[in-house]
C-alpha cells in the first residue's frame, strides 16, 4: 500500500487503472513529463476515438496506415492493459502528478457523463451514501460543464466513498481546474486539426511536439 495515496484509492487495488483508457490534455503531458523525467512518447499513445466516445476530450487528426484518422490522446497501457504508471506493489506511481481526469474521478461537472446524477455540491454527501437505481449515460463530446458536482456511479470503485474521505471544496477546485485545462486543450486540438486536415502525414510525434510547445507557453 502506498501511504501517500488516500482511501478509498489506497486499498482499491487499482480497479480503474486497468479498466479505462485515460484521456489526457497537453497540460497533463507536461506535468507528467516534469514529474517523471520521461519523454512524452514514453507514456502517451493515441486511441481510436470510437473506443472512447463518452467523454468531453477532443479528437485530433493524425496519419495512420496512410490515412488521416481521428484519435484521442491517452496514457499508454502495459501488455496486461494496466496503466503504464501503475505498480501492483505500490499503486499509482505518479499520484502527485497524475492527470486531472484521474485526480477528479469519480466526480464530474458534466451531468450526462456522470452515470448517477446528483443534485449539486451542497448535497453531495447524501448522494455518496447510496447508489441511485437509475443510471444515465450519454456522449458528451459537445456538452458544457454546468457548475454542479455529480458523482459517477461505476463498477470500478469497490465501494462508495464515505463523506470523511473527500472534501467538497477540494473536489470542486480540482473539477474547475480540469474544466479550465480542458478548454485550453480544445483550443490546441482545434488549431492542430484546422491546419492539418489536408496534410498528407501529420504524425503522432509531430502532434506531441506541437502540444508540448503549447503547454510550455501556458505553464
Overview of this protein structure:
- The structure is a single chain.
- The chain is of the alpha+beta class.
- It has one domain (15-218).
- The protein contains six helices and seven strands, in the order ααβββββαβαβαα.
- It has helices spanning 26-36, 40-43, 100-104, 124-128, 168-196, 204-218, and strands at 44-48, 60-64, 67-75, 86-87, 91-92, 107-108, 150-151.
- It has a three-stranded antiparallel sheet with strand order 1-3-2. The protein has a two-stranded antiparallel ribbon with strand order 4-5.
- β4 and β5 form a beta hairpin.
- α1 (26-36) packs across α6 (204-218).
- The chain is globular.
Secondary-structure map:
Elements: H1 26-36, H2 40-43, E1 44-48, E2 60-64, E3 67-75, E4 86-87, E5 91-92, H3 100-104, E6 107-108, H4 124-128, E7 150-151, H5 168-196, H6 204-218
Antiparallel strand pairs: 1-3, 2-3, 4-5, 6-7
Helix pairs in contact: 1-6
Amino acid at each position: 500500500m502506498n501511504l501517500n495515496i488516500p482511501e478509498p484509492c489506497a486499498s482499491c487495488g487499482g480497479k480503474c487503472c486497468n479498466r479505462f483508457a485515460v484521456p489526457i490534455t497537453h497540460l497533463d503531458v507536461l506535468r507528467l513529463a516534469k514529474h517523471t523525467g520521461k519523454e512524452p512518447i514514453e507514456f502517451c499513445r493515441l486511441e481510436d476515438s470510437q473506443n472512447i466516445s463518452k467523454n468531453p476530450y477532443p479528437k485530433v487528426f493524425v496519419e495512420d496506415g496512410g490515412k488521416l484518422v481521428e484519435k484521442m490522446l491517452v496514457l499508454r497501457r502495459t501488455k496486461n492493459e494496466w496503466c503504464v504508471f501503475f505498480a501492483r506493489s505500490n499503486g499509482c506511481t505518479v499520484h502527485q502528478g497524475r492527470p486531472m481526469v484521474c485526480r477528479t474521478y469519480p466526480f464530474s461537472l458534466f451531468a450526462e457523463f456522470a452515470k448517477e446524477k446528483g443534485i449539486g455540491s451542497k448535497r453531495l454527501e447524501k448522494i455518496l451514501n447510496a447508489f441511485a437505481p437509475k443510471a444515465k449515460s450519454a456522449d458528451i463530446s459537445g456538452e458544457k460543464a454546468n457548475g454542479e458536482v455529480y458523482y459517477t456511479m461505476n463498477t470500478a470503485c469497490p465501494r462508495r466513498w464515505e463523506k470523511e474521505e473527500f472534501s467538497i471544496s477540494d473536489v470542486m477546485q480540482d473539477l474547475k481546474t480540469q474544466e479550465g485545462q480542458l478548454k485550453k486543450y480544445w483550443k490546441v486540438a482545434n488549431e492542430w486539426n484546422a491546419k492539418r486536415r489536408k496534410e498528407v502525414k501529420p504524425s503522432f510525434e509531430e502532434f506531441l511536439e506541437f502540444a508540448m510547445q503549447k503547454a510550455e507557453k501556458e505553464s
